[in-house]
Amino acid sequence: MSDWKIALTDVEVPEEDVQAVLECLKSGWLTMGPRINAFEQALAGFTGAPHAMTVSSGTAALHLACLAAGIGPGDEVLVPAFTFVASAAAVRYVGATPVLCDVISPSDFNIDPEDAARRITPRTRAIIGVHFCGYPAQAAALRALCDEHGLTLIEDCAQAIGATIDEDGRQVGTIGELGAFSFFSKKQLCVGEGGMVTTADDALATRVRLLRSHALTSSTWDRHRGHDPAYDIVDVGFNYRMDEPRAALGLSRLGRLSDSLAKRRESVRAYRERLAEVPGVELCFDETAVERSSHFAFPILLADRERRDRFRDDLKAAGVQTTWYPALHTFTDYRSYVPADGLPGATEVAARHCALPLSSSMRIDDVDLVVTAVRKAVAA
Amino acid sequence: MASTETFPELPLFDLELQPEDLEAVAETLRSGWLTLGPRTAAFEEVFAEHLGARHAIAVSSCTAALHLAYLAAGVGPGDEVIVPSYTFAATAAAVIYCGATPVFGEIVSREIPSLDPEDVERRITPRTKAVCIVHFAGYAAQADRMKELCDRHGIALIEDVAHAPSATLHGRKLGTWGLAGAFSFFSNKVLSVGEGGLLCTDSDEVAALARSLRSHAMTSGTWDRHSGRTDTYDVVGLGYNYRLDEPRSALLLSRMGRIEREIERRRELTLRYRSLLADVEGITVPFTDEEVPTSSCYVMPIMLAEDGRQAEVSSALRERGIQTSIFYPSIHRFTAYRERFPGVTLPITELASRTELTLPFYPHMSFADQDRVVTALDEAVRTRGGPAA
User: Fold this and answer.
1) DSSP tag of B159
2) Do A140 and A43 fall within a single domain?
3) Per-residue pLDDT tens for A60-74?
4) Average pLDDT of A118-142?
5) Per the domain annotation, does A305 fall within a domain?
6) Does B192 reach chain A within 8 Å, measured CB to CB?
């Protein structure tokens, strides 16, 4: 076991969550049923998406979104190079090719709509707009680009539940044809493993619901309730179901999500205040983005890779856990996807950033402790 | 719709968890560590030991385990995998995930509803990469003969053990005969947890591949990074998110302590069902009394002697508050498969699919409920109702 003074993140499971799960286990009904339905309704209410379908993971959500969008072999999908690998892997699952795009800049590290526009070919079918670390991508620009070229916009909201894209508070996952969310254990709304697809389109919703459970025309719950035992299978589907205990946990936690996002934002603001004038530390994004972000992580920029790596070693020695996200094109399995003109922005942000500890249970003392370690490390 | 909904008085299956199970899950949740970590590792160790297998890799579902097993067998585009049609669709769907073609084999008979080795041998072509046998209802398929056959042809044997944890053939656990075995922990299964599965293997390479691909072919996990073991990772292949999480592993680990006792109870109830059903005319009961002690007795299947009465008998039982199911409709007859693989004819499988009914069955079922099911079935089979809707 680790002995971090401040771990990268922390998951608190209060007693009301534990009881919600236990009550579900006691009921003896564990597969998709009333709790999944309730969780999905609540998620639709929270995000403002007409349809919310729970699935087994954020990866499964992206896979189903690609399938529902009709993406297949021969197609190209624009994906930012600075994201978690699932954003691109899902494109490959359906036999299509991820075309990696650069970020706007190292301090504004979401997909650059202008770079994406340059990479559109007759084979391009979709853009996967990733709201990385919780910071909303340029949703309006991506929407316009997709509309102009007849592309599907899939929002990868794995790290961004509750983030907003405009002054009216419209949430991520509602401007693309499809949104993909993650409830993985480190996420703002976590259940262990889990995910969700959102859409406003009835046909896409039907397709996602079908394919997440082997394209069966009726469910175990339907049959339990006395529906006919016969069913058909109308496509090659998957087992991407979430189960009832996870839905019970998610539903219980969803009630506290807005508060918990506000707490994360508060910690980020405290960090930013304290780090604004520290030489050698560069903050990412601006105040508007901080207001709209749902703050999965708090990345800062150091001068270069060497200083970043040394910085991380110093923080580790001080008991502060940090992380960084490699860019896709540096992975062994993604080298062949590097465009000829390279991806300078993504390469730079991957080399220079470091994510500091952030969780909804973080106190101001914790922020101060991290900031002290940061000051010491950059002064060294 | 809602007005016609009825919860069955006697459901197909029912699950009763124990206080120790709840405590194990509660303790895990309170720890705050929910993703792949020490509890999953502990469960894998216990399950591997239970099977006598070198490796057990917990995954998100049996479908995921089958997908990884086929990938480990080298199944890819252009390849063929021989599978039964008398099984759940995942057995075949996972072949399609690999870009390969499922070739449907015939079962031995309605009394022995598992793949017929002679039929399988006739379907082997130069493109055949693997055979997947299904240990239907928890009873051993002919794993010994299939192993010999696969070895002779240089192809992989995969076992779909979704129904059969802890069942054996010649004293050897099912799932350990082939290159890999795929287990299910779906909510109605013998060892259920909600959604979950596991791949077992004796091969170090298969285990390494499965561990890598279940978590995006990343060279380190969140737990490794949290525990300070490593700092970053590479991605070395096209992987998936097929991970199980810690609360489910804790539940499985807790339930593993009772699995033998629960299966023993299933065997007693199965023998009792079989003896009661022996007096019902117009049905046959697959398998034999002699096979029960080595089976995991997952479900209680019966076959109606007469073709064309399945829907009628099923709805007659439903009217009496008894839920039944069909294990299984033939995969090759589903719309998705007829479209992709037309012209498949498997007379024994099709007859089994048209005449099978699965009766309510679970370890805490009472004798009185068993009697009630058998009486109702006897009446339903003897009473000729109109054609069912």
Assistant:
1) E
2) yes
3) 999 999 999 999 999
4) 98
5) yes
6) yes
